[in-house]
Amino acid sequence: MDAAEDRDVKLQRASGDLVSEFSAKLPSLLWRAQTGTPIRTPRKWAQITKTEKLVRLLEPFQEWPQLLDPHLQTLLPPLVDAFLAYLIKHRTQYGSVSAKSSQAGNQYPLPRAICRLLYTFCKVRGVKVISRFLNNEPKYLDSMLRAFIEWDAVRPINSEELAESETQRLIWEERYVMLVWLSHLLLAPFDLSSLSDDRIPVPYDNLQQFSWLPSETPMVAKSILSLSLHYIGASGKEREAATALLARLALRGDMQKLDMLTGLTKWAFAIIQPTENVESPSVYACIGVLTFIARLSASGQVDDFAPLINYVFQQTLGVLQGKSSVSMTIQSSALARKIVVKILRNVTGMALSLNERDDSRITDDQLSTIMEEAIDHFLVSLADKDTPVRFAASKALSIITLKLDSEMATEVIEAVIDALGENILFEKDDGSLVTPLEARKIGTHILKRNLSAVDAQRWQGLILTLSHLLFRRAPPTHQLPEILQSLVAGLGFEQRSSTGSSVGTGVRDAACFGIWAMSRKYTTRELMELQPQVVASQYGQKEVDVLQKLAVELICAACIDPSGNIRRGSSAALQELIGRHPNTIAQGIPLVQVVDYHAVARRSRALIDVAKATASLDQIYWSPLLDALMGWRGIGSPDAESRRHAAKSIGTLSTQEQFKTMNLVLAKLLRMFYSISRNDVESRHGCLLSIAATVDAFTSQWEASAEKRDTPEAKAVSSQVVHIWDIFGSVSSPTDDDLTFQTSRPELTAEASSCLISSLSQSTITTGLAQPSEPLLNRTLQILSLCVSRSDDISIETSSTALAQLFPLLSPSKQEETVRTWFSHLRTSWRLPTGRGQILALGTVFKQLGAQSDVQEDIVTEILRYTKKEELIEKRVAAVKCLATSILPYMTSTDAIANNFVEFLNDYTTDRRGDVGSLIRVEAIQAVGILLQKTLNSTPRSPLYQNLVGCVCRLACEKLDKVRLQAWLSLQGFWESAGDLPPLERTFEHFSHVSSQEYFAQLLTLQDIDWLRLPLLQGLATSAIAGAEGLIRASRSALTQFLNTQPQPRRQEILMAFLQDLSTILNDNLQDDRFAIPAVEFVAFLIDSHIPVILETSDPSFRKLFTLVQKAHFKSANIARLEAAVKVYAALSRVDSLRDGVLKKMTGLLLHPFPRVRSSTAEYLFVVTESEIIKYEDWSAPPKQLKSQVDNLKVTFSLEG
């Protein structure tokens, strides 16, 4: 997790606005607007769009449901009141088809809209919380039950209503909410026989199976029973509500008198233990029945359920362990297994409660059997493959353990701890693994535990069990040392699946919960009495107490763990530890402020900023953080970006005590690097990057601390830096195979090697260290040559930077020889994908060759060769980028290549990827800024530089956002300093800014500059015609506003100048669709929108336009060109001298082979002439059939000649 901004913070800030908007929009959805009366009338129908908008306002709260709590009292009662008001006033009209609704299909019945919203509240905040706000007056039980039966039975009357049936019948959200509401109403303390009459219907014929049901059973109970049985096997959420309703019914006192609890319990087991001749129930029916049993055991009183305890336990265990098809179905369902765990937990808890009272209904033998079977099942379920089952088993085991006597509870805890010790290996310093038996001979306290062989899923269940036990304060203090050691091991647990994904996150999350629970439930005195040696932490020092060791472990997890949940969980546990045990942790309060819950959300920030701030608080945190960064969570992390951040963090931490700590860090890193296997490419990558970051830190410290350069620590680090060059001459040096074989991940080795060479070269030059030997320099140059020949961007970028740093260390002859070698490679790779690296490398070393001007000239000539259109686009982009960023800034005279950049700015190369020429234009724009800076004060400006500014101005108006932004930034820099341009009123710095109306209004002020107006219009036409919808709207609005603010004579003058320039653009780009089509359509837009009256004096300009438009679509099969021409013809038809010619062209297009062109022409021609012949003809018919009508039109328009 490396989010740009914390989503929780965003939600917290926006929650008030979301709730306010919901509260403001809700009344209009529920109630009719009636003025002058306090009586409110509920609507019959609610608009779907409004309902869904309200649902979307609530759904973001799933991230942080508690934010809704203060508002539930005001948000929920209106929904409940409106539902009940509808129930009273419109209940019988639910199934009626609204004409408005059936036509538009955009309305819900009001109960559906309310239930959608209530269900969303349940989904966000939980049904237990929301159900408290439902009305539980007994008088509504009858109405609610009747409404459910009636509404759920609605069917379409005829085939015409079939399409509307989904609008009329209850949907699952309605059934769920109404069933939950019915179960809430069953809490009424009165007998059901007094709450309804006997005329209430029984909706389904499914009560024959209950032969034991007494005849005096109230009809309302039978109705509810029938309803619940129908939905208890449903596949949707209704099943949950139906099981709750059935359990609530069975547990009522008046129903127990009818023996309904026993009868329904036996019925439930009969369903999941069918006889041979009965069809097996579905998995949903099994889950529903098991959920019903679980609800009975959870909500029932011990005295009421006592006769059934042993029966339920044995039957449940029998179903789970059986071999029948139903047993197989239950065993294959994670949800079913989870519910079984809950049943066994509840029943075992009841059995223990009865035993405590010495109740004779449960014997000691029965209790012993129940305990043994239940605990054994829970321990086995801790290793279940599905997380919900493990969660349920760990919670169940902790609850049962809490109810046991201390001796038996201790045995259970020991069993959990012993299970954590299984399959653990031990690791020597050299990385070899030994068995626990061998480890005990050597001494386990000097070996590192290796958890690679343990079952990660089982460990999660076991650690979670210990955490739940700690949360309930079940373990005695004498067992805390072993528990805490397991938690610390779990906090650093990690395993990878066969696909490389992490499977250790759940274990670490459970360990965070455990430490948090321990901090909360045990006193400071109890924890301080523990011997520090019993918790052999990974990073904590031996001389500190247990609490300080735990704090260190949590800090390392909060700063470095790859999972955002673990970092936040560790932060929360650390806050609890420090808050509950004050004055026990070094720099406790500042530590909480630094390792903040929100600060550690972003990993890059946690690794670099938070880790540095934490280490600076106290020296006790520095070494553990450094060790953690050098482990699997840091430079051994599986993803490259995390390793880069970890390396940067190590470099930052190395400056803790300036040169002293740098010496220690470099020594550790070098020892680690030489011990890493060559096959462990990721760790080598991270280690080399860390060495490079530390060398960079040394160079910076050397420059900043001139007075400490002669200290022994500084000299020791200098000596180490000099010897780091030896890496490239040792057996651990990157080989040619490491940099070329794809199986060796060469891009990682190339990046790390380049970064280290770059850092060493810079340090050698800056600090004046002894240069490496010539063989070492040659080897590093060879490595960089291989790196720069790669095709991935990161290798090319880092290696070209490294070459720029290394070049000053080479002799002039070696420099020239290297450059000539690159020339040779580039020529042999003409039109091949390789060569980008050499091009960029030539640019980076250009400034290093100041004394060799002939070589510099050769570099410029060579790079210009690769900007030609014959070369691959990737290499052309690299060449232009090289010229713009690496060569131009260091050239004394740029006139020789300035013309090339005009060509680059007009590059519109396209391939199957689209406008790939935009990549070249973007890079060329960067260079224009440099070229223009050198001519700011020269007046008049040369045509070349006017051309450059014009190109940038055109690109600042064009339709591509990325090009437009870069062009504007370049133009803005020039505009601010140029004295011959209008004043710059506003600046724009972001993508969104350069798509606004204000932006284009600013650009239109340049139309007064004659040499800028034509390129300005050329770019503006592409945005106003071919851009995205928002861009078209913004550019046209800016143009309209600009013209409307001008006086009438001036406006006419500007428009004619625009049309003349557009004629020039069209004439120059007649065959280029990119500019010709927008120019033609832009002409039509200007004439239609802004020239109401065409003066006779302007006739030549329009005649020229008419001629150019004809040329633009002459013999063209491009429909866009033809349609644009038709728009201009329609606009030009208002010119009297051109009208006949225009009508002749348009009638001719009525016989065009393309139906779309004929139809478009007919539409515009009708607008121009209002001819009835055009209006009623089908212009999509073949041209042969239309010829007679076209001839009639010509006669009508007098166009025969």
Automatic annotation (TrEMBL):
Tubulin-folding cofactor D ARM repeats domain residues: 355-422, 445-589
Alphabetical UniProt keywords: Chaperone
GO molecular function per UniProt: beta-tubulin binding; GTPase activator activity
GO terms for biological process, alphabetical: microtubule cytoskeleton organization; post-chaperonin tubulin folding pathway; tubulin complex assembly
InterPro entries: ARM-like, ARM-type_fold, ARM_TBCD_2nd, TBCD, TBCD_C
KW Acetylation (keyword) present: no
Domain Tubulin-folding cofactor D C-terminal residue range list: 946-1121
Superkingdom: Eukaryota
Entry protein name: Uncharacterized protein
